[in-house]
Amino acid sequence: MSSPKPSGNPVATRVAGPATPGPGAVATLHPLGLDQVRLDGGGLLGQWRRRNAGQTLPHCLARLESSGNLDNLRAAAGEAGKEFAGMWFADSDVYKTLEAALWELAAPGSDPDMPGPASPGTRPNGREPAAPGSDPAVSGAGPRLRKFVDDTAALLARAQQADGYLNSYFTVAEPDQRWRKPVWSHELYCAGHLIQAAVAAGRTGACPGLVEVARRFADLLVERFSQVEEVCGHPEIETALAELYRLTGHRPYLDLARRFLDLRGRGLLEHGRFGPRYHQDHVPPREAREVTGHSVRQLYLLAGMVDVAVETGDGALLEASRRLWDDAVRTRTYVTGAHGSRHRDEAYGDPYELPPDRAYAETCASIAAFQVSWRLLLATGEARYADEMERVLHNAVAAAVSADGRHFFYSNPLHLRTGHTNAGEESAGHRLPWYSCACCPPNIARLMASLPAYLATGDATGLQLHLYAGATIEAGPATVRVRTDYPWQGRVELTVSAPEQWTLALRVPSWCASYSVLIDGEPAPASVDAGYLRLTGAWGESTSVVLDLGMPARQVRPHPRVDAARGCVALARGPLVYCLEQHDLPESVVLEDVRLDTGGPLEAVSTHPIPIVITASGAALDVTGTPLYTTDRHASSAAPLRLIAVPYFLWGNRGQGPMRVWLPAADTP
Amino acid sequence: MSSPKPSGNPVATRVAGPATPGPGAVATLHPLGLDQVRLDGGGLLGQWRRRNAGQTLPHCLARLESSGNLDNLRAAAGEAGKEFAGMWFADSDVYKTLEAALWELAAPGSDPDMPGPASPGTRPNGREPAAPGSDPAVSGAGPRLRKFVDDTAALLARAQQADGYLNSYFTVAEPDQRWRKPVWSHELYCAGHLIQAAVAAGRTGACPGLVEVARRFADLLVERFSQVEEVCGHPEIETALAELYRLTGHRPYLDLARRFLDLRGRGLLEHGRFGPRYHQDHVPPREAREVTGHSVRQLYLLAGMVDVAVETGDGALLEASRRLWDDAVRTRTYVTGAHGSRHRDEAYGDPYELPPDRAYAETCASIAAFQVSWRLLLATGEARYADEMERVLHNAVAAAVSADGRHFFYSNPLHLRTGHTNAGEESAGHRLPWYSCACCPPNIARLMASLPAYLATGDATGLQLHLYAGATIEAGPATVRVRTDYPWQGRVELTVSAPEQWTLALRVPSWCASYSVLIDGEPAPASVDAGYLRLTGAWGESTSVVLDLGMPARQVRPHPRVDAARGCVALARGPLVYCLEQHDLPESVVLEDVRLDTGGPLEAVSTHPIPIVITASGAALDVTGTPLYTTDRHASSAAPLRLIAVPYFLWGNRGQGPMRVWLPAADTP
């Protein structure tokens, strides 16, 4: 690997977004500010961010009130009864929503002139229609968000104890247990999310009071945890403290983050029934060679590892992070980009253990995987990390939200079987409006609110465009306007205003086998260098660049060791993985009996409301009388069937029913 | 279905074994007494029962002492401190071991003249070698067992409270919570196992004091639970009370068993995070159409349903039981006969959800499945139930015990992946000497101790032989001596002494495609009627019958809806499912890269210490450089490989390592 040196930030960042390295960081690429990338509603991401602002975020605000999260803080402030509601880490839902609101206020995702959000279902689940007036563009949600931020920051200040401690559960319900249950308490986990919200407040300049609250708590953490050898059962504080260091320049925060990493894997936690691997406490993170245990814990830990590595110039720690990321992506990641194969402990499985039906694939793990990839992209500049961001965002994360923006999956299976019976929230067959453990919805809200910050980066040579969406990007001396209907179409039209000797790097996704580029209408000689098409040179006031990424529908095959998908292919187009839904099959056909003719043509067809479906030829097996196991070669007959595959992220929006991503090939024995 | 009428028991049973229907029962077949079938060590089952007596049962006795189960009862009797050790239902381990000891004492499984147990491994796991002198045949374990039974029965009498209540946890640890936590307390579950032990005591006549203890408790149950509408979160009491009714003829026990069935599925339990299906409390058992939830709970419930149906002549209840059994066997049973696809809640999955690597396949569920099949066999006389007994016993149950008889699996995967990391007891990669939840080892002990009772049945026409093992069977006027090396060989030699007009019915297993029979050396015209070869007529003092069940090695294919085994075959021979172990592969070959040439020949080869292995031709894929997902058709090269498959039940006895039952076919895309 290359060994980048601290270079300062060549991009004149104004409102820094998530995980923006500090001035002394050893990083290759530098984020643009949240205010320098304006999503204008073209393509999926802009529409989704608009829906996030208009639907998801207001929904989260309402649920924080109705589920008692805010009342818990009021109780801690002595302003309500001493009844604690919900999970003991419920404060973290408030913090993630705060963070979302802060990013959103700094760069509003809604705009009266933009087209409305995509609505690929007529009545998603038929429940909880969006409240009239809930689009902030129409109803003035900006002031409501503003008020939520101000009120909540003030509430937090009142709920904070004199010494800086802030945690409603351990203030209200178990005051004598503060710091005494590190393996399960989530106290540092909650503190981490508070700090991340405060970093958003500080970077956007929107709420200095929140920064003060978080720093008071962080200072207490430094005071206490610099003295004792303890770590938290749920990593999160590491990345948060590194971020707070980036915001404030206060070195003790970074030192404490590194201390937590150095103390981990030394058996300091008293493990419960899931053992030390669950908490990534079986081996020091620097020495770990495989991702393991609770996926969200593993990925948040990994985010902290990269942050500390970058800020301290710790090449060995960065290398350890890359090794773990490689292990995850090479052996334990779903084709949707999701992580986590096991329901029992919300955990990674053994290598290549990737069951589609029992995929846990927690939404928060997908978000965390996106965040880790972003950090590694900044650290290394390698396109594969951006590829992974694109994959998980457009499939696993996108599938977690309903078309109405107000229903969510916690686990994200790749196969919902015929005859599936819901066994509680963890394997719901449809998206639910909220969860008793509601970590995912506000996590989606904060990711999407900060999305503009993830589209592009800068370095000394120019601009790198990683994710494609309609946007206007101002990067120092250059301006790039992007028009596209990505990922439905692979055509990306850019209008560039830039100085000469400036390089525009356009990511050519790893799924793309052929592309072309026109500059001012002329075919440009172009070759991809390590995942990016790099156009250097003569720019002026308004140069037109048209990148055309070929995105024919294609078949994707699993590694031969992925037993759970043997003999199957997935259909994909561009960054989108597709799936079959029972909805598109004749009523008499059982989804599990469908076979795909892998030799037949695939066609991408424009439809409504789903913009592009893939059609294919297939068949329905007749399995009448087939025993569960047999020595005979069963001669199943099969009736031809025209198959319609829809984007995975849109599944379950047209009523509830079976779905599958991996399609058995007709020629499998 | 047929509607059998009460016929009394035409078999002159002396020491009735488990689930022997009462005189008024509506059943088709009748068990022989435990003392009427003497396993003489020929074939697998006799050797296994001998090992059970010599190793497993003494091991259980020692562990009950060292794990604190007996001390818990001493504490309840006021004879030890008030520290409770282990799971709150730890009493049930004592009861199951008691039951095992009682069956064993009535018909000793060991015999100094018999050959020693099969030892297919040199040093299983290299741990806990069998203690010298632990074979009761050699060391006089009979008196030790006798003492254990007497001492424990006396201890139970002392631990029992004045009103009959008996449960060490709720006496010692939570005395104020008696009967107050029906969903999780396991009080009735423990009571059920006490009653089953007492039924063994009563039937064997070995320990009247234990019967008295159980009846005092049962009378308390009748008194209390006839008045309140409550059920237990863990079924077991239903079958136990029906059995106690059979022993005593005391009708209130049967009535209470039926009452518990009738009250179930009416929402009386306060469900925890796994919901009502986990406890089979989502629908009344009579109306249930699919097995669901915790597998052991479901199967114990099913056993109680059949018992009550048979004793009350309730055809509708029997029909409901058969429907549930059919659902389990048609859509949710592993090829090893095991039940339970999910680790999270130890539960059945959706239909056809049968992951080999994450098979939960709890040993207790396999034992319960055997018990349910036995009950349905008696009720209906249908061979398919005996087929299922054979399958689960020879594969799933047998695999749960090590060759040394002192190590056990709790969950029984059909695939242990390369790179598997143990995630606690529930997914151990090797057999452990004991478990914190030690329900399985004593359950094996009691099943094997009572095994002779399951081999054969009688009806008005004669004798039915269901399981094959070297044995001497005395059935009323007839005597049958069986010599066989089953399941290693399909030849079963019988010497029959019987009156004329007497029918010997020999089960021809469903896996058997061709067989022959000789009577006194002459080929006999024989045809199978509903799974049994029925030989009627001219018998005398010593008729020779030789049944030869063809058992070539064969390939077994899964139903096309079993996604987790697509493109794979399992190898089998006779009732035994085979598997590949890393142990038999070159070190450089990763198990998951092995492919089977399904067109190649299979050979059954005699070896030592494993009596019969199957050899096959295959190949090892070279997957170097293959990405996890790819659009390209990857042209893997493959190196030819001779494969050696060993009986699944013997896996993990030659050191720890990867194993798989389902073998990917070389011709799968």
Please tag this protein with its features.
homodimer, 669 residues, alpha+beta
Task: Explain what you see.
2 copies of one chain form a homodimer. By secondary structure, chain A is an alpha+beta fold. Chain A has helices at residues 43-66, 69-76, 91-106, 136-139, 141-159, 168-172, 187-204, 208-225, 237-248, 251-263, 275-278, 295-312, 315-331, 363-380, 383-399, 440-449; strands at residues 30-31, 37-39, 415-416, 456-459, 462-465, 471-475, 478-484, 491-497, 502-507, 515-519, 522-523, 528-529, 532-537, 543-549, 554-558, 568-573, 576-581, 594-596, 603-606, 612-622, 629-630, 637-647, 659-660, 663-664. In chain A, strands 3, 15, 16, 17, 18, 19, 20, 22, 23 and 24 form a 10-stranded antiparallel β-sheet that branches. In chain A, strand 16 (568-573) and strand 17 (576-581) form a beta hairpin. In chain A, 61% of the residues are buried. Chains A and B meet through helix 11, helix 13, strand 15, strand 16 and strand 21 of A and helix 11, helix 13, strand 15, strand 16 and strand 21 of B. Strand 21 (629-630) of chain A pairs antiparallel with strand 15 (554-558) of chain B.
